[in-house]
Fold this sequence. Notes:
The chain is built from twelve helices and no strands. The chain has two domains: 1-144, no CATH class; 148-295, no CATH class. By secondary structure, the chain is mostly helical.
Amino acid sequence: MDIIFWINxxxxxxxxxxxxxxxxxLGGIFxxxxxxxxxxxxFFCIVIGRSLLKTFDGNESYVYCALKCAASLVIAAMAEMxxxxxxxxxxxxxxxxxxxxxxxxxxxxxxxFVIVVAAASLLTFWYSEFDNFFSLETLFELxxxxxxxxxxxxxxxxxxxxxxxxxxxxxxxxxxxxxLGNCDGSDVSIFNSxxxxxxxxxxxxxxxxxxxxxxxxxxxxxxxxxxxxxCAVYSRKQLKNNTGNRLFCQLGILMAILSxxxxxxxxxxxxxxxxxxxxxxALPFMINTEDENSQNISTD
Length: 300
């Protein structure tokens, strides 16, 4: 996985410096397209999360981990992945809570926050329009404004309330949704659902939780989020009882928490990028099943 990470770094630098590909289109090994950022975000969460967990448990060099963290944050600046800075801080906090306390870890956490600030400065250097993006005033304004990227679309934090007020007003549909596929779109226009044809300008498909709410209601959204909670609970149980692989259980908890946040940020969990997340979540189950099977074989 680390080899792929460094290959991605080289390709991303080439795309940025030579091909002049910037912002959302900059995707490294994931190509040059509008959804590449979503793939890279998930990839970084897994690679950096795994690296931090190993480092804090004494299984990876602090210097090597710091280099990977710095590289990921620089790429995030190149690709204008603003959300990754917040995700990175969350990864740091969760990884620190899941591992043993050491003085080295405290020093590394301080250094990591310095690296975040430096990388954020690179973002504003390359894209001056984000000069005050990380100020509390700007973040509050973004969180409370009615629209996201245009005058007609929806903001992620107010999306469900807007949908309930204007577009999905029947109580039955609010509880159970409009049905799977009834709000989805396609690259081939004849396969677009009627709802998508009428309301795609809202950009609701950009957010996984909005799509799930529209198609399956509060019941489906609740079950969707409960899946990640249960994955975290199971991984925590395995970790506490020492019945699973320690690193995989820690990574399972970390990715379960991140998945809930990502579901409200973009649509990564509904596209192929989600496969990486679900694989990471499956690791604690896979390893435990393998151990149980090996015990049964040895007993027989």
